[in-house]
UniProtKB/TrEMBL annotation:
Family of the protein in this entry: Belongs to the trans-sulfuration enzymes family.
Name listed for the protein in its UniProt record: PLP-dependent transferase
The entry's keywords: Pyridoxal phosphate, Transferase
Organism for this UniProt entry: Arsenicicoccus bolidensis
PANTHER family per the UniProt record, alphabetical: CYSTATHIONINE GAMMA-LYASE, TRANS-SULFURATION ENZYME FAMILY MEMBER
Pfam families tied to this protein: Cys_Met_Meta_PP
Gene3D superfamilies xref list: Aspartate Aminotransferase, domain 1, Type I PLP-dependent aspartate aminotransferase-like (Major domain)
UniProt key word Transferase: yes
Cofactor: pyridoxal 5'-phosphate
Entry's Gene Ontology molecular function annotations: transferase activity
Organism placement in taxonomy: Bacteria, Bacillati, Actinomycetota, Actinomycetes, Micrococcales
Length: 354
């Protein structure tokens, strides 16, 4: 039935108890480490009905089987476990820094024999890197350069080359982009960000429409114990009920701010791909001035992370493991759902103060 529903409806209506007299409208928070013998899940590391509610909702939004993980990075690690030992991985030159650090660690210890770094927006370069590859890692738009990959062209070429394709869909969310429909095999989410949406939980998820990969990812979660807490999945699902509203509002504000920032004398470059609610700007007066901008806002919070209802900003290169392709003076803006005029006034005064 839910195939007829729009994404906004699915995010509200999926993962609820059946409409029966006396049933609660929300899934109960199931706190149990073990279950009476004789039926699934049997034990709390294998399954939990509060996880199920979140997984049904996110799976219904992305169009596949969803598995919740302890964090976005636990989901990334599970997806990378699909690389055969000594395999070849094609990955972006710029992407979420900790994903790249994990890939580099896997390459350093020989788990990955060859790590081929490419510009994901350059489809020809990605395709040229495919022969012999086992897995293509994509993130689109990328964090924080906001490079957009041609997911369907890359997925088709990767499949011809015998590689599986993973896409980190954290920045776009299923409201903006549904990678499985474009041929991607596995989606990874940092649920911490837009899906949960309130900066109060760390959680991850994978979604796949390939049965065999789903079984392997489920086995990985159980064997490695990379499981979420029931409270976290309950909170994330409550946040997801407003996903469409939040993404629509934040995206509209991001587009307006990107337009105004393009004319701001203190800003030398604006990156905004026209989707989602992250805007990256470069500060004309350099990295030190960029740090001062981050400290000069009153409404925007100087903090890492993104995707919450409140607007955040940070200079990404303050992190030692940020890829060097990211300019030193780049400030990433995570636009929240506050009034856009209040956001603009605060940003404008901070930019003018340096
Ligand atoms: C934050 C983030 C992650 C990691 O997720 P955690 O929930 O922090 O472990 C992965 N990918 C992207 C694009 C992210 O922004």
């Amino acid at each position: 039935m839910h195939e007829d529903w729009t994404l906004a409806t699915r995010s509200v209506a999926l993962g609820r108890p059946a409409h029966e007299p006396g049933a609660p409208v929300n899934p109960p928070l199931e706190l149990s480490s073990t279950y009476v013998a004789g039926a699934d899940p049997g034990y709390g590391r294998v399954g939990n009905r509060t996880w199920d509610a979140l997984e049904q909702t996110l799976g219904g939004l992305e169009g596949g089987r969803c598995l919740a993980f302890a964090s976005g990075m636990a989901a990334v690690a599970a997806a990378l476990s699909l690389v055969p030992r000594g395999g070849v991985v094609v990955a972006p030159d710029g992407a979420y820094n900790t994903t790249l650090s994990l890939l580099e660690a896997l390459a350093a210890d020989g788990s990955v024999r060859e790590l081929r770094r490419v510009d994901p927006a350059d489809t020809d370069a990605v395709v040229a890197a495919l022969p012999g590859a086992d897995l293509v890692w994509l993130e689109s738009p990328t964090n924080p350069l906001l490079e957009v990959a041609d997911l369907s062209a890359i997925a088709a070429a990767a499949h011809d080359a015998g590689a599986i394709v993973v896409c980190d869909n954290t920045f776009a969310t299923p409201i903006v982009q549904r990678p499985l429909e474009l041929g991607v095999d596995v989606i990874v989410h940092s649920v911490t960000k837009y899906l949960a949406g309130h900066s109060d939980v760390v959680l991850g998820a994978v979604v796949t429409d390939r049965r065999e990969l789903g079984e392997r990812l489920h086995a990985h979660r159980t064997l490695h114990g990379a499981i979420p807490g029931p409270h976290e999945t309950w909170l994330a699902l409550r946040g997801m009920r407003t996903l469409a509203l939040r993404v629509e509002r934040a995206t509209a504000s991001a587009a307006e701010l990107a337009r105004r920032l393009g004319e701001h004398p203190s800003v030398s470059r604006v990156r905004y791909p026209g989707l989602g609610a992250i805007v990256s700007i470069e500060i004309a007066a350099g990295a030190e001035a960029a740090d001062r901008v981050c400290r000069a806002t009153r409404l925007w919070t100087h903090a890492t992370s993104l995707g919450g209802v409140e607007s955040l900003l940070e200079r990404r290169r303050r992190h030692a493991n940020e890829p060097v392709v990211v300019p030193e003076d780049l400030v990433r803006l995570s636009v929240g759902i506050e009034d856009v005029e209040d956001l603009w006034r605060d940003l404008d005064q901070a930019l003018r103060s340096v």
